[in-house]
Structures are given as structure tokens and as C-alpha cells.
Amino acid sequence: MGILLNYSVAIYCRLSVDDGTNLESMSIASQKTMLTEYVKKQGWKLSDIYVDDGYSGVNFERPDFQRMIHDIELGRINLVIVKDLSRLGRNYIMCGQYTEIYFPEKNVRFIALNDGIDTLYSNNDIAPFKNILNDMYAKDISVKVRSSLHAKARKGEFLAPYAPYGYMKSPEDKHILIINEEVAPNIKRMFELSASGISTKKIAKIMEEDGVLTPLDYRNSKKNSVNGAFQKKYTWDGAVVRWMLRNPVYAGHNIQCKKRVQSYRTKKIVPNKREDWIIVENTHQAIISQELFNEVQKALDGRLRFVKRTGEPHIFSKLFYCAECGRSMLHHDRTNHPKYYSCGKYRADGIKACTSHHITYDNLCKIVLADIQKYVKLIEEDEGYAIQEILSIKCTSEEKQLVKAKKDLKQAKNRLEEMDVRIKKVYEDNLSGKIPDELFAVFISDYTNEKQTLTESVLLLEDEINTLQENRTDVSRFIKLIKKYADIKTLDRETLTALIDKITISEDKSQQGKKNKEQTITIYYKFVGVV
Fold first, then answer.
1. Among 221, 216, 209, 211, which Cα is nearest to 240's?
2. What pLDDT was estimated at residue 334?
3. Distance separating alpha carbons of residues 248 and 191, to the nearest angstrom
4. Average pLDDT estimate for 240-265
5. What distance in Å separates the CA atoms of residue 52 and residue 12, rounded to the nearest whole number?
6. Which of 186, 155, 166 is nearest to 282 (CA)?
7. Under DSSP, is residue 243 helix (H, G, I), strand (E, B) or coil?
8. Nearest to 475 by CA among 393, 390, 365, 392
């Protein structure tokens, strides 16, 4: 890139709480002043100043950073200036992506003023290592914060931003819960109603009829009580009631760390393994007794099981699911009424959650039996044709998976080759003295970890490709299995569990309100899935 006189400059400033907002030298104002004066001194045109105040450097989905990228795409900017590389970000992979690939491709010059880095010149050998050190700083902060929070959780301190409905944070110590006498009676009432045999859906209806605000509406009412701007937005439903009845906080216990941040880079929240939950008992005053809590848990567990009066599971138990919400289809067997199934979520939470997906037991049996008999007949008449027919159906849906897996495998192998080249270069640079031993160790550690991850990905992808390519073997196993049921006339649980993985039912939402909706039954057979 040659020297231009008519640069259109973007000044980018960033500060997060991890940087220490009390440091004047790091402040947004300080960054703006330093960079603005530098641009003015060079005689360049300042296009815009982009500021992300309070945003972490490990995530590049920052609003003003993305606005700057948008302006680069529009051709409005050809020079980006930051105070130092850590202001651009603390994720060395993404920083390198922008400074070494994106900016050069867009003919955008990049300057990190205090680090002496300018992509116009060849004085940027140290930039990757500064990015690594900045990344290490972010990782170190993340580990320290997590360790601190876990230590507090193990001591029984409450860490969530809001107290659960029925409690409030102590004015003396925000990590201690105290009972909110205004709404705690509602909690006790819900537990007592549940213990008496009333369903969560009915409890929700009682709360709504009595004018009790939902937890979210109650919190909003307190926020807006001063200016009188509060308006009720939510209604009680069975799912909210069930969640509250399942929460041991009301018996005086804290359960924390049920979720975690997957990576300090992405900040994605994922569920924690149950064994990693931090459970501390008797951390605060209980609203209900342990005995009442235990009684309600047994009642809730009991209501989830819909079985025949004989005590045996109905034949479609753990096989039949709603395609829309994924919940089990519940079996209903009432005296003087045809047996039928309905969606479990609809049953628990009503029409707002899902539709009923109502189907009689007899109709379901007829559909499933007819489908099994269809394949029995097809195999009896021409087994070779049956294999080709099933394979053609499977290949239509699995060909896309196979193409994607092969593409991902190729990319992973290319990246592995790139890692080998980079590792070799780092060794050579270390031997020649270009890279000190400390940075060499950091660099090798990161590349080795990435190489290990890529190697594992390659093995998994190769397994996936082999599995997808072995359809004929799976089809043969299915053919062999279904031949055992050549004389099938009726269905029983043993036959269904041997032949079928699951059955789903979906219905046309556009026909909501109609008595007879169009429904689709999908059967997932052993070894071959949907055929």
C-alpha cells in the first residue's frame, strides 16, 4: 500500500470494566484526545470517531466496531487508528484476522499508535505477540472472575442479579436473601395448592383470577412505581408455576452455577453438568418447609406419568412426541370415552404454548400398523427393489449431510497443514533469536492446542462420513429386522420398541380453530430413520 495524502480516518476507542475505568490514561476521553491530535498533526481528514464504552475486547460484535466495519465496506474509510492493539481487541485470532487479512484486503491502513505498529511499513513483526499477550490478559481475567464467583457460591452467597419472586436482597448484604413479606404468601399458597392435588395450569388460573401479578410484572411494577408508568403485560401460566414449585430456593437452599460461559472469547451461555452445580443448603430463611417442598415434588412427578390402569406403560410410551414442541404425547384413558393422545405442553400450559395435536389411540395404531405392513409387503415382493427404494429416500436427506461433512473435513485438514507450517516457522524464529523463549512457549502452546482440537474434529468427521456412507449396511439390518414381523396383525409394545425409535405428530397451524386439522405422522425406524 502506498502513502496517501487524502486519508479518510476512523478513530476507534474501546474501554471495558476489565481494563479498570479508574485509570485516566485508558479512558475514552484520553484515547479520543491523543488520537484526534495525531490525526490533526498529520493533516488527515477525520471521518468519524467510533466508541465502544463498556464492551469486552474478546468479542468483536460491538455496535460501533461493526458500524466502522460497515463504513469500511461502503468505502468511506481507508485508515483505522487505535491507541494500542488491546483497544482493537483481546482475542489474538480475531485481531490477526483484521490486521493481517481484512484490512489489507480492503486497502485500509491500520495504526496502533502506542505500539508503534503501522501496516504501511514492515515494522509489525511484534504485533502477533502483542495480540497473544492481550488475549492472555483477557483469559486470565476470565479465570479469576470465575474462581471468585465460585468461591462466593460455595460460601452460600446469592449471586444472581435479581432476587427470586418471594425474596428480596438484604439492604445490609446483597448476597443474602430475605423474605419479601408482600408476595411470599403467594408462594406458600401455590405450594399448598399443588400438595392438595391441584394442577399447575389450575394454580395459574387461580392466580390470574385473583389479580396476582406475575413475577416479571411485579418486578416491573416496583421499577415504575415512582412515575406511575407500569402496565400489566404478562399472564400466569402453568410453566411459570411449575418452575417455581421446582425451585429449592423456597425451602431455604441456593443452587448456583447451573449455567456457565462456554468461552471467554464468545461469552456464549451453556448449561453446566449437574455434577458442577454448586448446592448449598440452609443459606437463607425458607418460605415453605422442606416437608412441603418434598411433598410437592412427589406430586409433580406423579402427574407426569400417564399409564394404563394396569400399571403398565401404554404401548407408545416414550416413543410418541409432538413435532412442534418436542414434548411427549400424553395418553388419556377415561371411562366411556375413546382413548386418545394430546401434546404434553398443551396439556400443561394451554393453547399459548402449543396446540393439542389430538389423535385417538385407534387411529394412531391403524396408521403405524399400515406403515409397517407396507414395508413388510414391499420386502416380500422384491427385496432388492425395497433396498434401493429405501436407500434413495435416505440419500435425499443425508446427501446434504455428507457433502457438508466432507467440506468441513477438507477445511479441517487444510487448517492442520497450516498449523504445521506455523509451528515449524515459530521453531525457526526461536532458534534464530527473533522470538524470545517466553513468547515461543505461549505461541507453541496455543498452536498445539488448536492442532489437537482440529485432529479430534478430523476423526469425528471421518467417523460421520463413514457412517453416512454405510447406509446400505443399515438398510440391510432394517430389512432383516422387519422380516421377523412378516405376519404382523396387531401392535404391542415389544414390537414397537424393536422396530421404531420414535414417532412424531405435526399439524397445520394455519388450520387452527378447525375441528379436523390436517396432521402428519412421521415414523423413525431403527437403523434407517424416516423412510
1. 216
2. 73
3. 12
4. 77
5. 8
6. 155
7. helix
8. 390
Which long-range CB contacts under 8 A does 127-131 form with residues at least 24 apart? 127/85, 127/99, 128/92, 128/96, 128/100, 129/435, 129/439, 129/442, 129/443, 130/84, 130/85, 130/86, 131/85, 131/92, 131/95, 131/96, 131/99
Residue with cell 452445580: 277
Of 13, 16, 15, residue with least CA distance to 33: 13
- Rounded Cα–Cα distance for residues 31 and 95 (Å): 19
Distance separating alpha carbons of residues 531 and 529, to the nearest angstrom: 6
Q: How crowded is the C-beta side of 444, counted as CA atoms within 13 Å?
A: 14
pLDDT digits (tens, 9 = 90+) for 136-179: 544 544 445 555 556 666 777 887 778 889 999 988 888 889 99
Burial code of 477-493, b = ≥16 C-beta within 10 A, e = fewer? ebbeebeeeeeeeebee
- The answer to whether 285 and 252 are in contact (CB under 8 A) is yes
Instruction: Give the type of residue at 19.
Output: D
Q: How far apart are CA 369 and CA 144, in angstroms?
A: 60
Distance from C-alpha of 350 to C-alpha of 399, rounded to nearest angstrom: 39
CB burial of residue 271 (10 Å; 0-12, 13-18, 19+): exposed
270 CB burial (10 A radius; 0-12, 13-18, 19+): exposed
| 387-411: burial string, b at 16+ Cβ within 10 Å, e else | beebbeebeeebeeebeebeebbee
Q: Which amino acid is at 96?
A: G
Cβ 16 vs Cβ 55: under 8 Å = yes
Query: Starting at the edge strand that comes first in sequence, how are the strands of the sheet with 109-112 ordered?
Result: 45-53, 8-15, 79-82, 109-112, 117-118
pLDDT tens sequence across 478-488: 888 888 998 99
What integer best gives the mean pLDDT of the chain? 79
Cα distances (Å, whole numbers) of residue 432 to 63, 125, 133, 400, 426: 42, 14, 21, 48, 10
Give the residue carrying C-alpha cell 507453541.
444
Q: What is the pLDDT of residues 403-436, one digit of tens each?
A: 777 888 888 888 888 888 888 887 777 777 777 7
Beta strands in 149-226 (DSSP E): 167-169, 177-179
Q: Residue 70 pLDDT > 70, yes or no?
A: yes
Cβ atoms of 7 and 45 closer than 8 Å: yes
Report the distance separating Cα 342 and Cα 345, nearest Å.
9
| Segment holding 362, helix H or strand E | helix 361-381
Q: How far apart are CA 27 and CA 14, in angstroms?
A: 9
Q: How far apart are the first and last CA of the chain?
A: 58
